[in-house]
Write a structure and sequence with these properties.
507 residues, mainly alpha, Neurolysin, domain 3, three-stranded mixed sheet
Length: 507
C-alpha cells in the first residue's frame, strides 16, 4: 500500500465511525426515539457532523490528497484506492467550500426540521412548516453558491445542477428536461387511455380490514423471500418507509402498515428490500469507505423499483407465493383469483400520493417535484407559493387536485431532510429498472425463474454486475458494461406500453 494512502486511512476510519454513528441516530430518530428527544438529539447530530467534517476536511488531509493525485503517486494506487481518493477529493471540495459554522447549524436544522414537518403533516398545516423549509432552501442556495465560487467544475453550473450532482453524477437539467419532456409526451395520452380501461377493475379487496400483526409477519417473510439477509439486517417501523445502512453487514429497512391498505406494506417491503440487497451486496473490501455505498441514488432506486414493480407486480412472481398470501388472509383474499389480484395491484388510478402511485403515473409525480425544486433553488418561486403551484401541476398532469397540504405539498419528508435534487433519481431509477429488465430477459429465463420461486440467479447477476462495485463505477459505466447501452428512456416507455396494453387492452 502507498505510504501516503496508508497515512490517510486513520482519518477515513475515524470519519466512517462518525458517519456510522450519525446513521444510527437517524435510524433511531425515525423509528424508536421518543418525541421529546428531538431537540437534544439534533444538537448531538450537529456536534457529530461538525467533528465528521473536521476529520475528513483539514489541512493535513488536503496535503496528502494533493500528493496522491500527482501522477507518480497516483499510478501506485490500486483501482479501488483511486476510486476512494476520487470520492474523497469530491467530498473534500464540497465540504471545504462551506463555512464550518454554517454546516454545523444546517445539520442541526434538518434533524429538527423532520420533526416539525411530521407535526405539520399530522395537523395538515403547511404554514407551520413553511418558515423552516424556507430556511433549508436558503441554506441549499448558499451552499450551491459557495461551491460554484470555490470549485472550478461548478463555476458555470446552475445551482440546481450542483445539487443534482450530489445524487446523480453525470446528469443535469438539460438531460432531465429532455427525459421528462419525452415521458410527458409519450405517457400522458397513454395514461388517459389506460385509466379509462381500468375503471372496471375491481380492487375493493385491498380496502378490507387486514390485521396489522399478520401484515408484519407476511411482509417479514416476503422480504426474506426476495433476498433480505436477516443476519445482516433488521426491519423496523416508521412514518415513511426507508432504508439505511451502517455498512454492508448492518442494513436497516422500515415499513408502515395500514389496516385498510394491504398493498402499501407489501410493496414497500419489496421496495426497501431491493435497496437493502444493493447495500448488502457491496464487497467487504470497500464497505466503510467513501465508495462503499450505491453509486448513485438513481441506480439505487433502479434496484428498489425493479424488485417492487417490474418483478413484484408480475404474475410470474406471485404464482408460487400467492397461495401463502391467501392463507394469511383467507377472509379477504380467499375468493380473489391471482389474475384479479395482479390486475388490481397494477390498476391505473391517477392519485395524489406519490408512494401509492401506479407505475404509469409515478414519474409524473416526480416531474411535479422536479419542476418545483428547480424554481425554489433558482429563486423563481417562494415557499409560500408552493401549495398552489403543487395543486395546479397535479391537476394539469394527473387530473387530480389535493384538497389539503397533507395529501399535497407535505406528503414527502425529503425537503425537510434537505434532500433537494433527490427526487429526479426516482424517475431515473424507474427508467433504469426497465432497461435492466429487458437485458435480463435476454441473458436468462427470467419468467421461468420467477414461476419456480428461484430468485437466486437474478440476485446473483445483479450482485455481479451492480451491487459489488459500490461507487467504483458510475451508473452509465455499469449500464454500458452490462447492457451495451448508456441510460435511455426508451425501454421504460416500451415496458409500460407493452405491460399495460397486455393487461388491460387484450382481453
Amino acid at each position: 500500500m502507498n505510504e501516503i494512502y496508508k497515512e490517510l486511512m486513520p482519518y477515513l476510519e475515524k470519519g466512517m465511525a462518525y458517519q456510522t454513528a450519525l446513521t444510527l441516530l437517524e435510524w433511531d430518530q425515525e423509528t424508536l426515539a421518543p418525541v421529546q428527544a428531538e431537540e437534544y438529539t439534533s444538537n448531538i447530530v450537529g456536534e457529530l457532523s461538525d467533528s465528521y467534517m473536521q476529520i475528513l476536511v483539514n489541512e493535513d488531509v488536503k496535503k496528502k490528497l494533493e500528493k496522491l493525485l500527482r501522477e507518480r503517486e497516483w499510478e501506485t494506487l490500486s483501482e479501488k484506492e483511486q476510486a476512494n481518493i476520487t470520492e474523497w477529493k469530491k467530498l473534500f471540495e464540497q465540504l471545504e467550500a462551506i463555512p464550518q459554522k454554517e454546516y454545523k447549524t444546517y445539520s442541526t436544522l434538518v434533524v429538527r426540521a423532520e420533526n416539525i414537518w411530521s407535526k405539520a403533516k399530522e395537523k395538515n398545516d403547511f404554514a407551520s412548516f413553511a418558515p423552516t423549509l424556507q430556511e433549508i432552501i436558503s441554506y441549499k442556495q448558499k451552499f450551491a453558491d459557495y461551491r460554484r465560487k470555490n470549485q472550478k467544475e461548478n463555476k458555470k453550473k446552475e445551482r440546481y445542477d450542483i445539487l443534482l450532482d450530489d445524487y446523480e453524477p453525470g446528469f443535469n437539467m438539460e438531460i432531465l428536461d429532455a427525459f421528462f419532456e419525452k415521458l410527458k409526451e409519450e405517457l400522458v395520452p397513454f395514461l388517459k387511455e389506460i385509466t379509462e380501461e381500468c375503471k372496471t377493475v375491481d380492487k375493493s379487496y385491498n380496502e378490507k380490514t387486514y390485521d396489522v400483526q399478520k401484515q408484519r409477519e407476511f411482509c417479514k417473510w416476503l422480504s426474506g423471500y426476495v433476498g433480505f439477509d436477516f443476519t445482516k439486517g433488521v426491519i423496523g417501523e416508521s412514518a415513511h418507509p426507508f432504508t439505511t445502512n451502517l455498512h454492508n453487514h448492518d442494513v436497516r429497512i422500515s415499513n408502515h402498515f395500514y389496516e385498510n391498505n394491504l398493498e402499501s406494506a407489501i410493496f414497500s417491503a419489496i421496495h426497501e428490500t431491493g435497496h437493502a440487497m444493493y447495500e448488502m451486496g457491496i464487497e467487504d473490501e470497500i464497505t466503510l469507505t467513501l465508495i462503499g455505498t450505491g453509486t448513485s441514488m438513481g441506480m439505487h432506486e433502479s434496484q428498489s423499483r425493479f424488485w417492487e414493480n417490474v418483478i413484484g407486480r408480475s404474475e410470474a412472481f406471485w404464482k408460487p407465493i400467492y397461495p401463502k398470501l391467501q392463507d394469511t388472509f383467507p377472509e379477504q383474499l380467499g375468493e380473489v383469483s391471482l389474475k384479479q389480484f395482479i390486475k388490481g395491484c397494477n390498476k391505473i388510478e391517477p392519485g395524489l400520493i406519490r408512494t401509492d402511485a401506479d407505475e404509469l403515473s409515478y414519474c409524473l409525480h416526480i416531474m411535479v417535484r422536479y419542476e418545483l425544486e428547480k424554481k425554489l433553488i433558482s429563486g423563481k418561486c417562494k415557499v409560500k407559493q408552493l401549495e398552489e403551484l403543487w395543486a395546479d401541476q397535479y391537476e394539469e398532469l394527473l387530473g387530480v387536485r389535493p384538497q389539503n397540504a397533507a395529501e399535497g405539498v407535505l406528503q414527502d419528508i425529503h425537503w425537510a431532510g434537505g434532500d433537494l435534487g433527490y427526487f429526479p433519481s426516482y424517475a431515473i431509477g424507474t427508467a433504469v429498472a426497465a432497461q435492466i429488465y429487458y437485458h435480463l430477459k435476454e441473458v436468462m429465463p427470467l419468467e421461468q425463474y420467477l414461476e419456480e420461486g428461484n430468485l437466486t440467479p437474478i440476485r446473483d447477476y445483479l450482485k455481479e454486475h451492480i451491487y459489488q462495485y459500490g461507487k467504483r463505477k458510475s451508473t452509465n459505466e455499469m449500464l454500458k458494461e452490462m447492457t451495451g447501452e448508456e441510460f435511455t428512456a426508451d425501454y421504460y416507455i416500451k415496458y409500460l406500453k407493452e405491460k399495460y396494453t397486455k393487461l388491460y387492452c387484450e382481453d
